[in-house]
Amino acid sequence: MRRSLAGLLGATALALTALTQPALASQPAANQPGARTLADVIPVPVSVSADPEADFRLTPATAIEADRDARQVGDYLAGLLRPSTGYRLPVVERTSAPSIALELGPTAQVGDQGYQLTVTKKGVTVRANSSDGLFAGVQTLRQLLPARVESRQVVRGPWVVPGGTIVDYPRFGYRGAMLDVARHFFSVDEVKRYIDQIAQYKINRLHLHLADDQGWRIEIKSWPRLATYGGSTEVGGGPGGYYTQEQYKDLVAYAASRHITVIPEIDMPGHTNAALASYAELNCDGVAPPLYTGIEVGFSSLCVDKDITYEFLDDVIGEVAALTPGRYLHIGGDEAHATTPEDYQKFMGEVLPIVAEHGKLVQGWHEIAKTGLPASAVPQFWDTDGVDAATAAAAAAGNKIVMSPANKAYLDMQYHENSPLGLHWAGYVEVADAYHWDPSTAVQGVGEASIAGVEAPLWSETLTDSDDIEFMAFPRLPGIAEIGWSPKASHDWNGYRERLAKQAPRWEVQGIDFYRSPQVDWR
Ligand code: ACM
């Protein structure tokens, strides 16, 4: 059923259709099969003004105009469009040819992540205050082109962009996806594939869950056995793996090229069996436990009373901080059931200053809100009942919160009781459930102004490869992305499910194996 076959067949069928159909050059975009309008985009834009007289058609003569500061986005756009169109699409500073112009400069209304996109008969202009904004505009432009533009081989046009203007900017600055590479390890290429998939929906944070009971996934030069031994297996007993520091830097740079900031997580004081198994001296009794390949939680704890625990964390946090350009490190802090509440306070009292000494700010699961947090720390709410006094108190004290309620935003929850992958401890989460929530009412006492944004975590107890990732993330991830980006007033399931259906041909061409929820008319 999964990606390899269905996806490839889908892509081939589409490519063949494109080649055998007569050119539809004279018809306006809206009359073509798989019609796209400016309002079809996910996340739905803030404001759209269509002009059916102003469609733009890419031709072999089209150029991409971008000055030095916009060049990276211009090259990225060319890389998207060249394989399927077969056009040269030179990226140039100035041109008199019909063009897609990427313009950096003062742009009203759109802030530091938004953009304006204008389509006329003569060309497309994306304008923004920042390259992040240009990149977001390019993702919109991409969805305005036919789905077959996603093909990596030349296919037939026409390549028509519907005319009009979009003014667009995000509701929240933080729109994240988390990938658990600890329960099952995912290769650099698998993570890059996911980065490309999430970037299309304007996700701008990738939280990598790099260490848990079942595996330690990043090389730490001062404590090498963490990776070589602690990373040597995974859930189910497979061979596991880890990223060398060079590979991690490569992932961070790849994410940055998609305007995504990596937030590395080293979970502590619980979820640490892989570390405890690697170094006996980290255990209170000096005895290393065996490696763990099951899926229980809450049984491990770093030894709060030993000095070496903090020497270890100083080394680990120091190395990870040095490899990570983003401002935030995630220190986990969840489900520390094997740590007493007193020890938890003491532990966080030691660790928070270590992160600060290495020049980073703290993100953590919402349990960290129980400790004395600096105002810059970001608790990430993951519970299901929307009530947590400590999270509300942190918000009242000025901390910003990331919203990941497990019964809405966890992409690893099964869709229904017969879903082949996933867990259901937070419930079954169908596409409508993942879309039907509002961050500003998700947690009692945490209003709009206290919310940094949303994140869709994908835990990997049951997932082993890209095929599995895609089946869980699609089609739910675009819904979380829309909740994070689009205005609250635009929230509308009936409109959303129609736009979602129109994404499917894109996923087929991209080889994304998605769950064909019966809640959506995939046509
Ligand atoms: C979590 O799901 N334990 C953050």
TrEMBL record:
Reaction(s) catalysed by this chain's protein: Hydrolysis of terminal non-reducing N-acetyl-D-hexosamine residues in N-acetyl-beta-D-hexosaminides
Glycoside hydrolase family 20 catalytic domain sequence ranges: 172-338, 344-487
N-terminal signal peptide: 1-25
Keywords: Glycosidase, Hydrolase, Signal
Protein name: beta-N-acetylhexosaminidase
Residue ranges annotated for the Beta-hexosaminidase bacterial type N-terminal domain, each copy included: 40-169
Protein species of origin: Amycolatopsis deserti
Superkingdom of origin organism: Bacteria
Similarity comment: Belongs to the glycosyl hydrolase 20 family.
InterPro entries: Beta_hexosaminidase_sua/sub, GH, Glyco_hydro_20_cat, Hex-like_dom2, HEX_bac_N
Cross-referenced Gene3D superfamilies: Chitobiase/beta-hexosaminidase domain 2-like, Glycosidases
EC number(s) on file: 3.2.1.52
Pfam families per UniProt: Glyco_hydro_20, Glyco_hydro_20b
